[in-house]
User: What shape does this take?
Amino acid sequence: MITRSRRPLASILTAALVVGGVMVASDATVVPANAHARAASAATRAGSGTVTFAQTPTYTPNYIFPLDAPAYYSVANLALFQYLMYRPLYWFDSSGHVAFNQQLSLASPPVWSRNGRTIEIRLKAYRWSNGETVNATDLLFWEHLIAAEKHNYGGYVTGDYPDNVTAIRALGPSTVQLTLNRPYAHTWFLFNELSQVTPLPEAWDKTSGSAAPGSGGCAADVAKCPAVYAYLAGQAKQTGTYATNPLWQVVDGPWKLSKFLASTGYAAFVVNHSYSGSVKPTLSKFIEVPFTSELAEFDAVLAGSVDVGYLPVTDVAEKARVKSLGYTISPWVEFGYNSIRENLYDPTTGPIVRQLYVRQALQYVMDQPAAIRVFYHGYATPSYGPVPISPPNPFVTPFEARNPYPFSVSTARHLLISHGWAIEHGVATCTHPGSGRAQCGAGIRRGTLLELQIVDATGYPELTSAMEAYKSDASGAGIVINLRQAPIPTVNAMEIACHSGPQCNWQAGNAGPWTYFPDYLPTGGEIFACGAGGNVGSYCNPTNDANIAQTHLAPPAQFQAVFARYENYIAAQVPNIWEPLPDFQITLVRRGLVGVLPQEPTLVINPESWRWRS
Assistant: This one.
């Protein structure tokens, strides 16, 4: 199981949506649009210990309750908003790498029984901001609530968490035991299952604002959880009360919300002085500032009104100017991959792209290094398979890192010709139908043209240019690529897993990357397994399913080899067309602000670690 968070393309690809406007940045002021305000603005923030952080246009928080419904399950809500206030049980970022971070976790590492069926979790000495301890009851509350409301949870995948937890009980005030339906791979269960757990305070276990904390009874009885969930989810939909509702002021993270503008996503945080973590804030305030467009954000950068912002790719020529204004430039590389998803059951092209050699040919004509250099100006990383090759991580294999399908139009042509296609007048045509080794493949008729329509997301100039180059390179192998553009929601709505019917009338889509968050182990249970929720192209392979299952079940001594088997197989199978993954953003950090870098590849932020250099 991996992330359910399919966000829009990163901010570096976001075109200006509305000319002009900067959104409200504080109670009484707007972000200065005048460069003369730069020095005074910077001095004021540094002196008061305030940091302003630029949000991505159209990608702002809108849900506060950590048991996020599917419509709200996003990086913007979890990593960039909720995690500041409500800490997950386990933390998985460490100095710019994806790794288990024991120091920042609320609990000690899980202890497994010898038979692998039970886990003991011992909480550390953390406290809620209302003075109560983060205890076993808070874990029971979460486990019962998610068991009762799993279908209202954006991270739910049938058969995985919480289905694989058959019992939970407190062994003491700070210790909980989970019983599982079978032994699981320790790495997978920690990185992808326990990573989803967030203790909830007793103050939330109720069914009305006037009810006493704990009176809802969910922590003790699963049957009482639906009423508690209904109350909490209802409160979470009242976005205008986020900063004033006493519920959301009970936090165990380093920050408390002091102001939230539901219309824009503006969020101001102050320090939770009761925070028990080892890294305590030195800032007095942290502000997430929304913008109507990249143009507005960059104007604010030039005016010196943003402490942590971003440089649009379209403005990379301004790097020297930005540096002269006192900003450090650092790409924010995310832990994920990017791909074009082909529909293996489109009535026209499905039989074609179900052929492995066709998918290989489509991959051979994808010139990722050139696209990264020319269109992304170096601010992207190649995707060669399901596991990110950057940032460095212990999961990527040499086979994938070396690129199994390096750019070669001639190799793509040879593949097609050797499988019964003739390339005449620039178009590959099936001349030898059938299922033999030198034939086109099952379901492909004589005279079929190798033609594929790809629907791209609108408004992303670098992506558009890269896809035009892909179309041109593919034509050299006789592959006709027809490009069409549509808004991201339209492309996402089009990409429906199917085997027949009207919903199958789409050939390929290109809506954005997949980020491994908050499931950090890059295995394929949700995206490449037969029938998986994220497997929109309907790729299905029994060998791959068996490999994925082993990554969930392998004992520790065998895990690395089992994971490599999965990764290498699916990289070679090219279920999608791997393409460059744009950096999440080109981050700009004001001189004097330390601790922001290195940035975490899971896209979480830790402003409690940031400070102004004295």
Notes: The CA atoms of residues 458 and 487 lie 5 Å apart. The chain is about 25% helix and 20% strand. Residues 556-573 form the longest helix (18 residues).
